[in-house]
């Protein structure tokens, strides 16, 4: 007993002496000019691991056994690094001086380790949280269009697709987006979902955009580039932050066919980060956005010249249902057989060839919902097992209504996706596992749904009764012509007669038909696709640099499983989900030579996909030469590849959406599971057959198993910081694509091998087939950017980029949708006036007219010149900012893609609390 008491007393005395030996270091950090607190400042002891970050009140506090005097190092982006010596106990007040960040930005994603941006071996662009705060754009995703070499397609207010180096389309599967180490692609369709599952507006630490090939570090689908998004660490970014943005768009009803009047825009975002102890921290993020979406309203006739009053075969770009087009010659011949007296009217019509007539389409407004909504939430827990060993658990959930374009317009209603992550992260390694789980919700596929709505209220032709829309149209056409009307005027009269009983968009009958058709799975003749696919991913990475010393070596392993589950509506998975696995291994080695003036690097990656027999090996070689302390020349060779997307590799049985539809189904008929029992013919041969009725004119399209595509890319660039005031970056690149995957439209008669099946009133279906083009495709371009620090926080930026395509395969839809050149100008100030309370920023983006291809059409996107701007005022005592801003200030409507919506001006006011 006595022994236990003595031992206990010794333990208490030891603990007491240990506590006595602890020195508590605390203080407050402020801006030397404005005297406001500076959060997220790194405060570390010199030559020791102890330290802290300042919280939202500018305070820091930590303990150490080291004796006084103690040297602290304080650093933060946008401020000069400062060292102070502490000799006595007590809270310290430290002031940091603002400083230019030109040439000091650091990036991680270029080489998977921290390095200065100007020393990067490849082209990389970066957006920081301060850039986002000062941007006139209400969404950080829209900021990306102002970066050098970046293209975007805006399919709707909440669906933006990003790419670099030219190949740009909505739902681009060849551009990778990584959020906190997680690929945010939709597991089934393989294109990134962007804002729907990305970081909330207040939780972005930084964005890094790698231009061009990046598969060697980030795997399949990195042909066009990679966007790496990093969220805020709750140990560093603490406190409650909130931002409320209220705005208005559609301010000019009728302008550029905009059918909406002034409509409200709402965006509310809240973030709470809390460091509970030195070991545990958490963050919670919530964002909700609601607005009236931009409307796709292009009325250009895709079937030739003339509008609805001139062309009976009129099919507007954004009219849905008018893709149903039939040659009425068989009906004219039938009328002639019944009434020979009509010969003077009918014979001239038959003599001129095909007399194609399209059904009447529905415009997007009133048909697809214009209610754009997005809700996303994120929770993250962090626990430091040791000072340099951290466990992370996070969950992100996003849902909403949006629209994207592909072979037609898709209205995503109630779409939602969750991403859940568990990670162990140490100084030299990490182990990360995550899953992405999607639910397509209730999606309206615009074109085929509208075609079936037309068939629902009046069939094009009823073989049992001999009646239908086209027989009625033909009879009315001949009747009007018999009364002396011209063919064009008679066509208008005939359409009005055949359209009797046609329900207006939004009417009870229309909604009944739309809902019933959209609730029948594609596998049963409707237009509903159900996608509840999942992705599971595990990655391990180790940095061997501290072990091998002579070079920097990073290596990793990655395993990914796609569990495709569409119930037969997208994939041949009626009997259960299909598993597709990918196995990867990668390594990145960097070595400095010639007195550390030349940095040489090599990256290798091995990938195997279970759908394809051969693995893929990709490489990246680079050299960076230090010309002087602030000037660098870079050269790189990069190889990238992409396994075909799941929908290109696997697809369900094609669906006959409409027996009279010469297009619009957009089903993919190629890949590992192709369907030879459905003979496919080139559209040219089908058109010839329609004229001659000679089966020999039909030419089959060769269906071959699709193969991965790849690109070899060379880049030469130069970056330099001149006089600490001017930062320049110039580059040129040249790329060669092999097995390039493009699309071609073909026609077939499902289930029939008899070419004469086409004789039945032109009955055939048009499909998109993904296939590898035989010839090599080359792309090349150049770009330059200049940033100038004009002192007193004034900063001016301008960038220019150019992209070209050689050896274009005109038999493919290749989606090289970019102007030959484009440029952006940015001018702003981060703080001026009394205590630097005011700030502003304005941007100008110019794109000349360019040709754009997409699944449901192609045409010219008109030139656009867009000005955005904002001015802000900071309430220093309230830790708040009021921002007044506008995008597309002149309200000159523009488009970023063929068939995409016209984007007008949006004007807003924003209140932000504790945002940093």
From TrEMBL:
Pfam families: CarbopepD_reg_2, Plug. The keyword Transcription regulation does not apply. It is a multi-pass membrane protein. Residues 117-226 form the TonB-dependent receptor plug domain. Gene3D superfamilies: TonB-dependent receptor, beta-barrel domain, TonB-dependent receptor, plug domain. Keywords: Cell outer membrane, Membrane, Receptor, Signal, Transmembrane, Transmembrane beta strand, Transport. PROSITE patterns: TONB_DEPENDENT_REC_3. It is found in: Cell outer membrane. One of its GO terms (cellular component) is cell outer membrane. This is TonB-dependent receptor-like protein.
């Amino acid at each position: 007993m006595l022994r236990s008491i003595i031992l206990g007393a010794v333990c208490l005395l030891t603990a007491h002496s240990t506590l006595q030996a602890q020195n508590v270091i605390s203080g407050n950090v402020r801006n030397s000019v404005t005297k406001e607190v500076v959060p997220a400042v790194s405060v570390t002891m010199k030559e020791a691991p102890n330290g802290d970050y300042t919280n939202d009140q500018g305070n820091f506090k930590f303990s150490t056994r080291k004796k006084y005097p103690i040297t602290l190092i304080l650093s933060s982006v946008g401020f000069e690094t400062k060292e102070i010596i502490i000799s006595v106990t007590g809270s310290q007040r430290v002031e940091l001086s603002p400083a230019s960040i030109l040439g000091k930005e650091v990036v991680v994603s270029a080489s998977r380790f921290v390095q200065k941006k100007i020393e990067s071996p490849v082209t990389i662009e970066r957006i920081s949280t301060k850039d986002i705060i000062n941007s006139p754009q209400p969404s950080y995703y829209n900021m990306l269009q102002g970066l050098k070499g970046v293209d975007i397609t805006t399919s709707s207010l909440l669906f933006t697709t990003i790419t670099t180096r030219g190949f740009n389309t909505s739902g681009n599967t060849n551009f990778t987006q990584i959020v906190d180490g997680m690929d945010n692609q939709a597991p089934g369709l393989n294109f990134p979902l962007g804002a729907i599952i990305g970081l909330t507006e207040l939780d972005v630490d930084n964005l890094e955009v790698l231009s061009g090939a990046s598969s060697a570090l980030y795997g399949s689908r990195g042909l066009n580039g990679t966007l790496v998004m990093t969220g805020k660490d709750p140990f560093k970014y603490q406190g409650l932050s909130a931002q409320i943005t209220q705005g208005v768009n559609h301010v000019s009803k009728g302008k550029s066919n905009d059918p909406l009047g002034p409509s409200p825009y709402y965006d509310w975002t809240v973030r709470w980060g809390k460091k509970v102890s030195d070991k545990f921290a958490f963050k919670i993020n919530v964002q909700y956005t609601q607005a009236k979406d931009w409307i796709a309203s292009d009325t250009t006739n895709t079937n030739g010249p003339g509008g609805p009053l001139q062309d009976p075969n009129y099919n507007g770009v954004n009219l849905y249902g008018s893709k149903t087009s039939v040659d009425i010659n068989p009906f004219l011949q039938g009328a002639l057989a019944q009434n020979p007296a009509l010969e003077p009217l009918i014979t001239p019509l038959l003599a001129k060839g095909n007399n194609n007539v399209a059904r009447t389409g529905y415009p997007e407004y009133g048909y697809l919902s214009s209610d754009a909504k997005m809700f996303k939430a994120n929770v993250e827990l962090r626990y430091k097992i040791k000072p340099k060993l951290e466990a992370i658990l996070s969950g992100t959930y996003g849902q909403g209504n949006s629209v994207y374009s592909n072979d037609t317009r898709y209205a995503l209603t109630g779409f939602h996706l969750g991403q859940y992550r568990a990670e162990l992260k140490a100084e030299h390694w990490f182990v990360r596992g995550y899953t992405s789980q999607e639910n397509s919700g209730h999606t309206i596929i615009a074109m085929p749904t509208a075609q079936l709505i037309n068939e629902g209220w009046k069939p094009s032709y009823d073989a049992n009764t001999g009646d239908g829309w086209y027989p009625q149209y033909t009879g009315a056409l001949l009747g009007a012509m018999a009364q002396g009307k011209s063919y064009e005027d008679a066509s208008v009269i005939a359409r009005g007669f055949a359209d009797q009983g046609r329900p207006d968009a939004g009417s009870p009958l229309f909604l009944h038909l739309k809902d019933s058709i959209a609730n029948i799975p594609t596998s049963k003749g409707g237009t509903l696709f159900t996608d509840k696919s999942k992705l599971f991913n595990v990655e391990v990475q180790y940095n061997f640099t501290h072990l091998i010393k002579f070079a920097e070596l990073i290596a990793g392993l990655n395993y990914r499983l796609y569990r495709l589950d569409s119930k037969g509506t997208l994939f041949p998975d009626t009997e259960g989900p299909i598993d597709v696995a990918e196995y990867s291994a990668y390594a990145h080695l960097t070595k400095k030579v010639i007195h550390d003036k030349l940095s040489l690097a090599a990256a290798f990656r091995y990938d195997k996909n279970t759908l394809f027999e051969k693995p893929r090996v990709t490489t990246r070689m680079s050299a960076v030469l230090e010309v002087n302390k602030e000037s660098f020349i870079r050269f790189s060779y990069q190889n990238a590849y992409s396994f075909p997307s799941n929908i290109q590799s696997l697809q369900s049985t094609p669906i006959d959406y409409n027996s009279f539809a010469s297009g619009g189904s957009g089903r993919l008929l190629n890949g590992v599971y192709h369907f030879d029992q459905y003979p496919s013919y080139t559209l040219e041969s089908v058109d010839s057959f329609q004229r001659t009725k000679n089966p020999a004119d039909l030419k089959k399209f060769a269906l071959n198993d699709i193969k991965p595509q790849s690109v070899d890319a060379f880049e030469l660039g130069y970056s330099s910081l001149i006089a600490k005031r001017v930062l320049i970056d110039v580059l040129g690149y040249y790329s060669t694509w092999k097995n390039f995957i493009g699309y071609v439209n073909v026609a077939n008669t499902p289930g029939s091998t008899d070419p004469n099946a086409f004789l039945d009133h032109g009955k055939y279906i048009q499909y998109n087939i993904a296939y590898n083009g035989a010839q090599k495709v080359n792309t090349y371009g150049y770009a330059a950017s200049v940033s100038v620090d004009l002192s007193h926080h004034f900063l001016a930026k301008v960038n220019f980029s150019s992209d070209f395509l050689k050896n274009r395969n005109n038999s493919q839809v290749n989606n090289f949708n970019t102007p030959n050149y484009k440029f952006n100008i940015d001018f702003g100030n981060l703080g001026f006036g009394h205590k630097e309370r005011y700030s502003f920023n304005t941007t100008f983006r110019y794109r000349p007219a360019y040709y754009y291809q997409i699944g449901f059409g192609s045409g010219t996107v008109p030139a656009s010149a867009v000005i955005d701007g904002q001015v802000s005022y900071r309430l220093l005592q309230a830790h708040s900012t009021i921002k007044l801003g506008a995008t597309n200030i002149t309200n000159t409507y523009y488009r970023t893609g063929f068939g995409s919506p016209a984007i007008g001006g949006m004007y807003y006011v924003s209140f932000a609390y504790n945002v940093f």
